[in-house]
Amino acid sequence: xxxxxxxxxxxxxxxxxxxxxxxxxxxxxxxxxxxxxxxxxxxxxxxxxxxxxxxxxxxxxxxxxxxxxxxxxxxxxxxxxxxxxxxxxxxxxxxxxxxxxxxxxxxxxxxxxxxxxxxxxxxxxxxxxxxxxxxxxxxxxxxxxxxxxxxxxxxxxxxxxxxxxxxxxxxxxxxxxxxxxxxxxxxxxxxxxxxxxxxxxxxxxxxxxxxxxxxxxxxxxxxxxxxxxxxxxxxxxxxxxxxxxxxxxxxxxxxxxxxxxxxxxxx
Length: 267
Hints:
Layout: H1 3-15, E1 22-27, H2 31-41, E2 47-53, H3 56-66, E3 70-74, H4 82-87, E4 95-100, H5 106-111, E5 116-119, H6 124-155, E6 163-167, E7 172-176, E8 180-186, E9 189-194, E10 200-202, H7 206-212, E11 218-222, E12 225-228, E13 232-236, E14 242-245, E15 250-252, H8 255-265
Parallel strand pairs: 1-2, 1-3, 3-4, 4-5
Antiparallel strand pairs: 6-7, 8-9, 8-12, 9-10, 11-12, 13-14, 14-15
C-alpha cells in the first residue's frame, strides 16, 4: 500500500478536530457552586456537561465511566480533595481546570499540571479563556492519537490492523476498517454499518469516504452505497443486480457498476 494516499486522508481529519464538542465533567462538593458553573458553561458553544458530581469518589467513578475531555475540579472537598482524586488516577486522559476559593492552592495546582486555575467566584471571561485552552488541549491530544494511528498503519500491512477516525456528533470514533460492512449516503452525512455494532451517523458525505477507503477493497456500487467487498455473501441477478452482505442486508447495484463489481468479486 502506498503511504501518500493515507497521509492525504489523515490530515484533513486533523484539521477538523477544533470544531468538536468539548465533553466536560464538574466535580464540586458545593451544589450551588457546581450549578452556577454548569449554567455559565451553558452559555459557551459546543460544550456538553456529561455529569455533575459532589464528591471525589463519585467524580472518580464518573471519570472512569464517561471519559470526559475536561474536568472542572474543586480543590477543597471533604475526605478526599482534588489533588487526592488526581493521584488516584494513574494515567488521566483528560485536562484539568481547578476551581477553588483559596488562592494559596495555585502553586500546587501548577505542580499537578492543571490546564488552568479558576478562583471563585468565577468570572465569565476567565471561564471562557479556560474553555478555549481546553479546546486547544483536546485538539492536540486527538491529533497525537491520529498520528499514532497513521504511523501504526504505515508499519503494518495487515488490513485488519488499519483504523480510521470517524467524526461523529459525540466526538471522534476510531474503528477498524475491516469491521465496516457498508456505508450509506444520507444527504450530507454517511451512515456506517459495522459488524456486531449499531449503525453510526458520521458528519461527512459518502464521496469523501469513497476516496478514503479506495485502497481497502471498497467499491461504490450505487450512488447511495459503498460496500466492503470482503463482506459480500452473494450476488443476486436482476437488471443491475443486488448483493447480500455479511449482516444480511440487501443492497442494489447500479447497471453501470455491475461489470466492475463482478470483476472485483472474481479476483
